[in-house]
Amino acid sequence: MRSSITRCLLIAALILAIQQSANGQLGRRSPRGTRRVVYNSDLSNTTSHMSDPAKVEELKVIVRNYSLHGGIDTVVQEIWHQGWSTFWRSKHCEYDSRPQHKRMIAMMDKGIMPIQVYLQACHAQKMEFIAGFRMNDRHGHNPNLFARMNKEHPDWVLGFKPTSRSADPRSRALGCSFNYAKQGVRDWIFSIMKEVANRFDVDGIEMNFTRMPEVFRSNVARGNHPIMTKFVRRVRRMLDETGRRRKKHLLLGVRVLQSIEGCRKVGLDVPTWIRQGSLSYVAPGDIGFTDFNARYEEFVKIARKHNCFVYPQLENRLSYPRRREGILTDAQSRAAVNNFFGSGADGFSTQNFQMHWGKKLKHYPQAMSLLKELRDPRRLPTLDRHFVYTPLWGTKGFGPSRTYLPQVVRLPRNKLGRGRFRFRLCEKLTKDAALICRPSVVPGDEFTVSVNGHKIAKRKLKVNWPATGQSAAITFPLSPKVAVYGDNYLELTLLKSSTSKGAVTLSEVELVVRH
Asked: Each residue of 259-274: pLDDT tens digit?
């Protein structure tokens, strides 16, 4: 018995040592610079506040709300997507034809470009204005452009299908994304970026690769890294040349997938972009959901060596299976951003934050004060936090980009065993937290639960048996003596099964920290 206990203690110590070694790469809670909140404004987010026709003063009010209520440092207004310009007219592309953007046509007919009003209002409020480009938006709303491309330059079009249910049906046959392997595509989009940088007093450009990340054909994407790297470097040089004429440094940011490997899989060599000095900041995150479990320190480790800032993405929702629950609670937002700072990030960025503000949501603009709260890394650990670790695209889903890897523990009932579930806590607990896991155990099953090699006493496990077809909820206190800074591991061991069919699965863990 004594040797068995000793062996268990040695295994637990080894696990903890491995975790601490891996977590040693985590950044300090010491954000650089003064930029903490980068607010990415969806193309239709701004127009949701405006009447038809839109008025100049309405745009100025929106910006004042960003500053007064949100405490935002940098506004990224997306101005180009699906081959369309928004907030200005360009000789290089057509203007957005959707109803919500036609509201600004009367303003432009008078010679007033909304982008100019927008950025001047931002500067008056001491906020940076970044022009956002969705590099390959696949909502599928501009089939006329792709119909022309299929006739004139069919090799410019990728065959990926639309991601939006409201896409024009023609887009499914025509395709709705650009092939950046073609020089003509890159030259065209570069000309639009150059026009914006030279024509308007923007503070920089953001390249959004999360709406969507595919810029090459899947079978050649990984080998096409040099093509996109050269394009990013070309944009950087253009911004430097323009900045010298305007006597200001222009920023270049990228919004990319939440893992370096995921980026590489679709042809984006982000570490090289950082090392070659092309990027001012990187905003890693999922395509549609907040990722509490991502290892953002892999970006931080490189970025801190090359004067590049890191702002992980706070998305509006938890996961595809839980999308109907609505927006993240304040406690969930605090938990996510606290993990960002704990990974060494310099702040956070938003995408689709609160979906579309405006008349659709109550308590606007006062509710934006949450952003002010989230910007302070010292205050966050003193407030209630609710961490949610769940497969963002379901237990079998890899996301639209096929790069996301869901985490699922599966224990066959006909072969008893154990499995581990990783969950991140980038802070040191000061008091017990409530950990909740939802394995598909049923009455009659016998199991044990451990965290970081420490077995949880059976008397501390509170099991809530739900209705048929749902997983049990097992709640127990997570002690500061057991939790580690960074990656923690919950281990579920099936000792006895009440049936021999199927498997016990675990795909979701939550952690609630009360103050």
From this structure: 999 999 999 999 999 9
- Domain membership of residue 79 (yes or no) is yes
Closest CA to 296 of 335, 252, 337: 337
- Give the whole-angstrom CA distance, residue 60 versus residue 237: 32
* C-alpha distance from residue 275 to each of 157, 305, 334 (Å): 31, 8, 31
Contact by Cβ (8 Å): 266, 214 = yes
- The pair of structure tokens assigned to 279 is 């990027």
CB 427 within 8 A of CB 387: no
Tokens at residue 303, please? 């970025």
Q: Which two tokens stand for residue 321?
A: 């299976």
Which distant-in-sequence residues (6+ apart) come within 8 Å of 244 by Cβ? none
Can you tell me the distance from the alpha carbon of 100 to that of 105, in angstroms, rounded to the nearest whole number? 10
Q: Which residue has the higher pLDDT, 465 or 73?
A: 73
Specify the DSSP element, H or E, that contains 441: none
Strand ranges (E), 261-364: 281-284, 309-310, 313-314, 348-350
**Are 407 and 481 members of one domain?**
yes
Q: How many structural domains comprise the chain?
A: 2
What are 487's two structure tokens?
């990656």
* Residue with the two structure tokens 């701004």: 46
C-alpha dihedral sign at 509, 210, 103, 140: negative
Per-residue pLDDT reduced to its tens digit, 85-104: 999 999 999 999 999 999 99
Instruction: Check the CA dihedral 189-190-191-192 and report its sign.
Output: positive
Q: Is the pLDDT of residue 11 over 80?
A: no
For 458-494, what is each residue's pLDDT tens digit? 999 999 987 766 778 999 999 999 999 999 999 999 9
Q: Is 85 helix (H, G, I), strand (E, B) or coil?
A: strand
Distance CA 359, CA 353 (A): 15
C-alpha gyration radius of the chain: 24
Which has the minimum average pLDDT: 40-44, 213-217, 308-312?
40-44
Q: Which domain holds residue 423?
A: 11-22+389-513
Tell me, yes or no, whether 220 lies in a domain.
yes
Q: Helix, strand, coil shares of the chain as percentages rounded to 5?
A: 35, 20, 45
Q: What is the mean pLDDT of the chain?
A: 91
Alpha-carbon 236 to chain mean position: 23
- Mean pLDDT for the stretch of residues 205-229: 95
Whether 28 is in a domain gets the answer: no
- For the record, the structure tokens of 468 come out as 């048929």
Q: Is residue 30 part of a domain?
A: no
Q: Is 329 within 8 Å of 364 (Cβ atoms)?
A: no
